[in-house]
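INTERNAL AUDIT FORM
Audit reference: QA-55
Scope: verify that the stored structure record matches its stored sequence.
Auditor: D.O.
Record contents follow.
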Amino acid sequence: MTVIKVLLVDDEELIRFGLRAVLDAQPDLEVVGEAADGAEALALVRTLRPDVVLMDVRMPGLDGLAATRAVLRGADRPPKILVVTTFEADDYVYEALRAGADGFLLKRSRPAEVVQAVRLVAAGESLLFPASIRRLAAARAGREAADGGAVARAGLTGREGEVLRLMARGLSNAEIGARLHLGVQTVKTHVSGVLGKLGARDRTQAVIAAYESGFVTPATEDEEPTGRN
């Protein structure tokens, strides 16, 4: 069994204590360290090499947004980052996701949700809540509308566009495959094509680009893909 190494970053000791209790109770999860601010987190990422970092976005000193950017910029194989927040509609969270964080957790999340989130991002999935992402993106939507946005310029194929829309709903590769009648490996190939054409580090950045450019809207979320190859 592969054990997922987790680093906790939060300026509140009580929050770190609770997260450690939840995660260390799982046989496949291990909290390898704790940091109270972003600067300490950067040092521990270098020495402990965690698989997943739970990063509070609002901390004194070097905050979670700046720390997320520094971690992703400074490592050849950076850890997966889950930003942790009190409120969904948090500009810090949105900017952290744009910078490459793999998803976010609310501090009121249930223990089972925290465990599932860590496992998902460790496995390479992005943790997205489409409604929350939509609200965060709404105020910024259309900033690229004048020239069609990043998605229009990327030249996605029809199939890649369908895959991106389903990614924006938060579907996994297996769920996308079932919806479009494709094998998981084929879906992975299309996802890689989407990321490459958009210049996105991961699914989260691709989905945010889709919302900001207007490629995905509440209306298109409800459209059913054709499922044709």
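Auditor finding: record pair retrieved intact. Residues 225-229 have pLDDT under 50 and may be disordered.
Action required: none
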